[in-house]
């Protein structure tokens, strides 16, 4: 799993690699959140425009003398909806890309956990509570901090909840 060049890296280099992976993961999370917010706004706008079209149809039925004007409005709104659908498709594509990036970063984070598991006396990934609802899954940062702190105070570990 680990090549020979990995074993030649210093702790500082490894920590820099870990920090870069965490930063990239945070950026991917931010992009996903931004795109999700954009999608919600576009969906609200599409729903609003769709309601306007429905209201226009009702008005057309009750006021036939304004039929030409309403048809023009409906046509314009239809064009706007098509434009919004294109924006939504584009945003969906961006969201999909961001999700793919997030998946890649999640894989990288899992690699960080695998790397920590390869360290001597690695901190546990999860707390040792018997009940699954009390079990805590530790972050890679927590595990690194505990592993480094164990050099200063060997009694520090996550295996016993200390």
Account of the 3D structure:
- The protein has 162 residues and is mainly α.
- The chain folds into two domains: 10-109, Helix Hairpins (Orthogonal Bundle), CATH 1.10.287; 119-162, no CATH class.
- Helix content is 75%, strand content 0%.
- The chain contains four helices and no strands.
- Helix 2 packs antiparallel against helix 3 (67-118).
- The longest helix has 52 residues, at 11-62.
- The radius of gyration is 27 Å and the shape is elongated.
- The mean pLDDT is 84.
Query: Based on CA inertia axes, which overall geometry fits?
Result: elongated
Q: What proportion strand?
A: under 5%
Output the CATH topology of the largest domain.
Helix Hairpins
What integer is the average pLDDT?
Answer: 84
Name of the CATH first level of the largest domain: Mainly Alpha
> Residue ranges: pLDDT <50 for 5 or more in a row?
none
- How many β-strand runs? 0
Tally of individual domains: 2
Task: Look at the helices and sheets and give the structural class.
Answer: mainly alpha
Give the fraction of residues assigned to helices: over 70%
Q: Which H/E pattern describes the elements?
A: HHHH
Instruction: Work out the helix count.
Output: 4
Radius of gyration: 27 Å
Q: What is the terminal-to-terminal distance?
A: 31 Å
Mind describing the biggest β-sheet?
A: none
So, CATH architecture of the largest domain? Orthogonal Bundle
């Amino acid at each position: 799993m680990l090549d020979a060049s990995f074993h030649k890296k210093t702790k500082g280099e490894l920590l820099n690699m870990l920090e870069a992976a965490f930063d990239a993961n945070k950026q991917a999370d931010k992009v996903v959140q931004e795109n999700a917010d954009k999608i919600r706004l576009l969906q609200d706008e599409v729903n609003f425009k769709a309601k306007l079209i429905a209201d226009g149809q009702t008005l057309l039925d009750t006021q036939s003398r304004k039929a030409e004007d309403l048809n023009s409005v409906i046509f314009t709104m239809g064009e706007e909806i098509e434009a919004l659908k294109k924006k939504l498709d584009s945003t969906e594509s961006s969201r999909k890309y961001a999700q793919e990036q997030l998946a890649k970063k999640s894989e990288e984070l899992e690699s960080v956990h695998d790397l920590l598991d390869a360290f001597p006396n690695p901190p546990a990934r999860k707390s040792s509570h018997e009940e699954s609802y009390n079990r805590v899954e530790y972050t890679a940062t927590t595990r690194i901090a505990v592993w480094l702190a164990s050099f200063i105070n060997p009694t520090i570990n996550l295996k016993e909840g200390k």
